[in-house]
Design brief:
about 350 residues; alpha/beta; D-Maltodextrin-Binding Protein, domain 2; 2 domains; two-stranded parallel sheet; about 40% helix
């Protein structure tokens, strides 16, 4: 009699089970390896959609791009403000997925730095279908458009504000717009002149030629005056924030969306007068010691109602010529003003206009 231990049928069955398990493991590994190298065509859409799956009820509008009508097919050149970069980063990948026939190409001047001014000039020279701008056309540009017989429309799609940052050790209540101007034009050089300690002010800025934010600051805060000789220009906001964090007398300005959430600096309330200071963050203030577990958030209401004094709108500037460029510009603005577009604008750090 053959023992159970040596029963051939049991041995064969055991081998079959082991081979099946090995095949399953190998198949799963192979599928995972292939997926890592060659993701499914719809995986990008799934990843993009999942970014909205955690939104609060009523805040997810991931299909509203698809509901925008009159979106033309074709390749359209656009250009303009560097301040729009976060919006482009959030919005355009989804446009490629949801309205793939609407192809957009960012185009900048071959020899001049990108920005609102150069973008508008290219737009007026008929080199762009529409332009992303952080300001309205100025008087000279309006005149130029008139001479060319070009009617334009400026469509606001987002709100941005300038916030001022100082070293967290600086004991100061806030600054008026006039005081900020006097600091950056050299009329005020010590913090004791604006209610702070006896300490030399060290103003920092990015270079004007690289940023439409600086352009706006010069026009809206400095009233066209030049920066003082003691202003130190740094190439990036990251470097400027590090400088202020290390310098007790440092001060820097940038988009509120960048400044407010930082852990190493102190965003200051700003006002037209010293008795009407408005914070760029929602109160109560989260001190640097509690960051990054908690972070300050934007004072959206003050930006939307205009209480915060250094505020600007971002515009899509569109041709009114009854041609395909006009259709492209209007479609782009409509996409940004849809619920999904406004959600993405908010996600990119700006304030929604709707």
């Amino acid at each position: 009699m053959i023992s159970e231990k040596n029963d051939p049928s049991i041995i064969v069955l055991t081998l079959l089970v082991l081979l099946g398990l090995a095949a399953g493991v190998l198949s799963g590994f192979t599928r995972g390896w292939k997926t890592a190298l060659n993701p499914e065509p719809n995986s990008e859409r799934s990843q993009q959609s999942s970014a909205y799956s955690s939104d609060p009820p009523g805040q997810s509008h991931i299909d509203s791009f698809a509901r925008v009508t009159n979106v033309p097919a074709g390749l359209f050149n656009y250009g303009g403000s560097t301040a729009w970069a976060p919006i482009r980063k959030e919005v355009h990948p989804l446009l490629e997925i949801i309205v793939p026939q609407f192809k957009l190409r960012y185009t900048q001047h071959p020899s001049e730095p990108p920005g609102s001014s150069n973008g508008i000039q290219m737009f007026l020279d008929n080199q762009l279908a529409f332009v992303q701008s952080s300001r309205s056309l100025n008087a000279g540009e309006y005149q130029q458009a008139k001479e060319k017989g070009l009617a334009t429309q400026e469509i606001p799609v987002a709100i941005d504000s300038i916030a001022v940052a100082v070293n967290p050790s600086l004991n100061i209540e806030g600054l008026t717009v006039a005081q900020i101007k006097d600091i950056y034009t050299g009329k005020i050089s010590n913090w004791s002149e604006v209610g702070g300690p006896y300490l030399a002010i060290a103003p920092y800025s990015r270079s004007p030629e690289y940023s439409s934010t600086i352009e706006f600051f010069i026009e809206g805060v400095l009233n066209g005056e030049n920066f003082a000789s003691n202003v130190e220009f740094l190439p990036t906001t990251t470097e400027a924030l590090r400088a202020v964090a290390a310098d007790p007398g440092g001060i820097y300005f940038a988009s509120a969306a960048i400044i407010v959430k930082q852990c190493t600096i102190l965003p200051l309330p700003v006002g037209q007068t010293s008795d009407q200071l408005v914070s760029p963050y929602q109160k109560p203030f989260v001190p640097p010691s509690d960051c990054p577990k908690q972070r300050n958030s934007l004072n959206v209401a003050a930006f939307q109602n205009g209480d915060y004094p250094i505020t600007r709108r971002l515009f899509a500037i569109v041709k009114e010529n009854g041609q395909l460029d006009e259709q492209a510009g209007l479609a782009y603005a409509s996409l940004l003003l849809s619920e999904q577009g406004q959600d993405l604008i908010e996600k990119s750090g700006f304030v929604r206009v709707r």
